[in-house]
Amino acid sequence: MKKYLTVLICCVAIGIGLNVHIQYVHDHPKKISIALTNIEALAQGETGNGNCRFFGSVDCPYSGDKVLYVE
Amino acid sequence: MKTIFSVVLLMGLGCTMTSCSAVATADAVVFPETISLHGKEKAIKDSVYLKYPFRLRLNDDVLAVIDIHSAVYYIHTFDYKTMRHKQSLARRGEAPAEFLSAENIRIDRHGDVWALDANKSKIVKLAKQIDEQPVQIDLDKELVRALDFDRLNDSVFIVPDYTGQHRISFVSSGGDILRHAFQIPSSTKKVSAMVLAQAWRSFISYNSHHGILGMATQLGQVLEIYDIKRERVIKVIGQEHGAPHFVNRGGYAVPSGIMGYSDIHVGEEHIYALFWGSSFDDIRKRPEHHKEGGRFVHVFDLKGNPVRQYLLDRCITGFHIDEERGALIGLDVNSNQPIVEYTFNLD
Q: Which Pfam family, an example, fits this chain (chain A) (predicted)?
């Protein structure tokens, strides 16, 4: 019985851990996004209109151009 | 032992349930039904290259399309029956009669085409004939980059801008601000009004028959419905879960959430809003695989209750809705033949 209880507690602990992790990712997407942004900025270099990339329909806040995304 | 067993099991179940409900409530709106629509391409007969068509209006048989990344002319008109090119308007350039951008077009009851040039801060009534002069309205200098426009009546425009002090301004035919109305429906208090206005950048549509104004956020999933005649808020849909996500970087709002709505139409009985739902994380990671546009058309009644959503077979950036005919004309920016017509049945 003790063995079953230990296994069950371990499963619940893993479940709680996963829940906390998912919740963190859900609530803090910006931190992850910023980290990715930094890596990509290093790889691509800066563009002329701040950090506005490609063409699209998003207003670049630095230049007013219509771009795909802003970093 | 059994009691401990049960308590541990209940705790585990409780944690799992909490996590599921958090994910389940992430959807800003739930629609009672989803209907798939298949489009029919309307091939342009002449060699007119549209790089990034974003807005279109149909008046009688004249279809006007804005290409926001055009090299020469921002606006092209076509005969909708034959799909023959009629005219190219709004030449790109710095000369007084030329344009530095084109945000939107409106066609008035006389068939005149009006366009907003945000970079020149002007609303222009375009000339129909070559020898005719366009009517240019210099917008009040208090407005910081007019983001969209619609006509309240023959002599007043509704204009949202980046000042962030008010949601919209009413502008006279002389370009002066007459008055302001409403506030950005954000609970964020820590950022400046201008940063908030950048994050809450919205597209508008006004129906003068019943006086309803719709505003749809580009960088979130919020749809605001205002009664302009009584100057009151009818409903803000998605205010909590659909608010735009952004990072304040040196006084500029850098979008970090989703591409939300890109066009809106307030009809006689329903409000239609074109929704993308693409996350900026995905776009940044794989821009070459990203398709511009949205496949969802959200339909609400005039009180803001969700009615249904249409799922399109391709991604479109802007649309024209003809409620009487049950037709939606969309712009597929990913195709060489971008004009697509859908038919729908509104019961």
A: NVEALA
B176, B184 in Cβ contact below 8 A? no
User: How large is the angle between the packed helices A29-44 and A2-27, nearest 10 degrees?
Assistant: 60
Backbone φ/ψ region at B191: left (φ over 0), alpha (ψ -120 to 50), beta: beta
Q: Which residues in chain A touch residue B50, judged by CB atoms under 8 angstroms apart?
A: none
Which CATH class for the B37-343 domain?
mainly beta
The angle formed by the CA atoms of residues A27, A24 and B261, to the nearest 5 degrees, is: 30
Q: Which residues of A touch B253 (CB under 8 A)?
A: 61
Cα end-to-end distance, chain A, whole Å: 55
ipTM over 0.90: no
Tens-place pLDDT, residues B168-203: 999 999 999 999 999 999 988 889 999 999 999 999
Query: Could you read off the pLDDT of B86-107 as tens digits, one per residue?
Result: 999 999 999 999 999 999 999 9
